[in-house]
Amino acid sequence: MDKIAIIINNKQSLEVADTLRKELDHVEIFSVGAYDGTTKIESINNFLEKDFNHYNAFVFIGALGICVRSIAPFIQNKQIDPAIINMDVKGQFVQSVLSGHKGGANHLAKTIANISGGTALITTASDTLNLWALDIIGRKYKWTNEYFNTTENDFIAAFVNGKRTALLLDIKDEGSEQLERTLPDFVEVFYEFSAINPKDFDLIIALTPKLYETTLPVLFFRPKCLHLGTGAQKNINAEEYEAQVLNFLEEQNYSRYSLVAINTVDLKKDEAAYKAMSDKHNLAFNYYEAEALNEIDADLLFSEAAHASTGANNVSEAAALLTSGAKSLLVEKSKHVDSFGKHFTLALAMDVRQERKAGFVTIVGAGPGDPELVSVKGKKLLQNADLILYAGSLVPRRLTEYAKEGCVVRNSASMTLEEQFDMMHEHYKMGHSVVRLHTGDPCIYGAIQEQMNFFDHNQMSYEIVPGISSFQAAAARLKSQFTIPDRIQTIILTRGEGRTAMPEREKLTELAKFQSTICLFLSATLVDQVQADLLAAYPPETPIAVCYKLTWQEEKIWRGKLKDLAKIVKENELTLTTMIVVGEAIDNRKNRSKLYDPTFRHIFREKS
Hints:
Layout: E1 4-8, H1 14-23, E2 27-31, E3 39-40, H2 44-51, E4 57-61, H3 64-71, E5 83-87, E6 93-98, H4 105-116, E7 119-121, H5 125-128, E8 144-148, H6 152-160, E9 165-169, H7 174-181, E10 187-190, E11 203-207, E12 218-222, E13 226-232, H8 238-251, E14 259-265, H9 272-280, E15 284-288, H10 290-294, H11 304-310, H12 316-324, E16 331-337, E17 343-350, E18 360-365, H13 376-384, E19 387-390, E20 408-411, H14 417-429, E21 433-438, H15 449-457, E22 462-465, H16 470-478, E23 491-495, H17 508-511, E24 517-521, H18 527-535, E25 543-548, E26 556-561, H19 565-571, E27 578-582
Parallel strand pairs: 1-2, 1-4, 2-3, 4-5, 6-7, 9-10, 9-11, 11-12, 13-14, 14-15, 18-21, 18-22, 19-20, 19-21, 23-24
Antiparallel strand pairs: 5-6, 8-12, 13-17, 16-17, 24-27, 25-26, 25-27
Helix pairs in contact: 8-9, 18-19
Domain CobE/GbiG C-terminal: 226-349
Pathway: Cofactor biosynthesis; adenosylcobalamin biosynthesis
Domain Cobalamin synthesis G N-terminal: 47-127
C-alpha cells in the first residue's frame, strides 16, 4: 500500500494539498503550523529523520530550495529512496526531484499535474529523449530484470547514449509488442539469439526465459511464462525440493525468474514443499482433479504409481500442459529423489499465450462501426496482425486501415465457413497473428461458437477481445440511459423470430411483459411480426428508436411510437445493420439516481 506524505509550510498551500488528498489514496498532510486538516510536526527535519523511509512518496508544496535542503541529509540510493515531488502553491509546476523511475516520482508528478491542471517537470534522460525506461518498463508486464557483464547504471547510461543494441524477443506478449512499436533507431530486433553477431553490437536486451552466454553487457527481461508440473510422494523435504527444482531449471537453460506457477493434482494440495516454494518465490500454486488431468490429449506416458495414488494417469506433465494451455512440453518428465528416498517428478511447459513460434487467433469486437470505437487492445491487434479476416457485410472496411504493411486483409462476406477456416489455419501454421474481426461485441449474435469449435478441434490458441455493442452505441446516440431509477432496471437484448427459432420462454410476446428496455438485433426484416408481438404488452404510444448503421458515416436514426414501427422500417427500406430500441427509457429525463443525492451515504461520501 503506497503512503504519501504532503508537507506544507504555509497556509496558502492547504487548498491544493487538500485537493490531492481527495484525489489520491493514503495521503496525509503535515505542517509545522498545525493548519486545519493537517497533522502537526515540530520540524520538517525531525519528521524526515524519523519517517523518511516509512512513506513511499513525499510531496513538498512550496519553494524547491526548502525541499532540497530538507531531504539532502537522508538520501541514500535510488534502490530504496522514496519518491520526492516539489510543486508550487498553485500546482502550476510539479517537479520530480528524486527517485524518478525506481521510486515512481516521474509517474506521480504526471498524476499530480493532471489533478492540478499544471505541468509535470521531468528531467530524466530516458523520459526527455523518449527512450525506454529500462529499470521500470518491466513492472507493467511482471518481468524481472537481470544484468550480466554490467551494472544497472552502466547499462542504462550506455543505452541512453545510443550504443548499438540488439533486442532479442524469445516470447510474444503485450510488452514485446510495445517494444517493437517504440523501437529506437539504434536498436535492431532479433528472434533468435544465434542470429546476433556480437561484433555488431555494444549491448543486448533479451526478453526471454532462457539462459544464454555472451561477453556483451546484457539486460535480461525475465517474463513470467514457465509452468512447472510436479508429482511427489508424501512429505518430501522442502529445502531439497526447492534446490532440485532450481537446479532442474538451470540444467535445462531456463531462468528461475520466469517460473510463474507450480501445478499438481488436487490430492497434493497440502504438500508442504509445494507451499513453501510457492510462498518463497511468489509463485501461483494450482492443483487439478485427476479427471481434468486425464482429459489432456497429448499422448502422455501412463504412470502406474501416479494412477495408483491419485487416480491421474500422469501428474507432472499433464498439470504443466493443462495450466499453460500448451500442446507440447518444453521439458518432459524427469525423476528426482530427496535424501530420505522420497520421489518426485518435474516437467515444464510454456504459457501458450507467450509462445512466439505458435500462431495465434484473436476474435476482436470491432464495435458498432466508427474505427475510433474499437478498443485500444483491438486496435493494437489490428496494427500487428498478419491476417485480418473481417465480416465485410457488417464491419466497415475503414477499420482494416489500421493494418500494417504486408498484412493480408480479406472480406469474409462471400466465403464459406470452411474457406474462412482454411485461410486462418494456413496463417496460423506459419506462426502468424490472425484477427477475426466481428461487428459490435462478438459474443452477442457473433456466430463465433462454430469457429471456436474449429479452433479447439485443431488445437489452435485463441482469445476473444470484447467490443462496444450496437445497443450501447444506440444509448449514446439517443442520449438516453436505458435503465431508469425506480422504473426500469433491466435491458433485454434479443431478436425477432425468423428462420432461427426462439425458445418458448424467450418469445417476444413473453419478454414484452416485463416492460423493460428491449434492444432488438437482426429484426428489421421481421418488423411486422415484431411490432405485433410487442403491442401484445406495450402501449401503442411506447417510444421507439430505429437506428441504422450506428456510428457509421451513413448513420440515420428515426424516433417514433411503437404503433408506427413497421411503417418507419418499411418506408426507409431498412434490412441490415439496424438496431431497434423499445421502451420509455428513450429520451427519459426523470427519476434522479440516489448515487449522487446529498442525503445518500456510501463508502466514498459521508451523508450530508
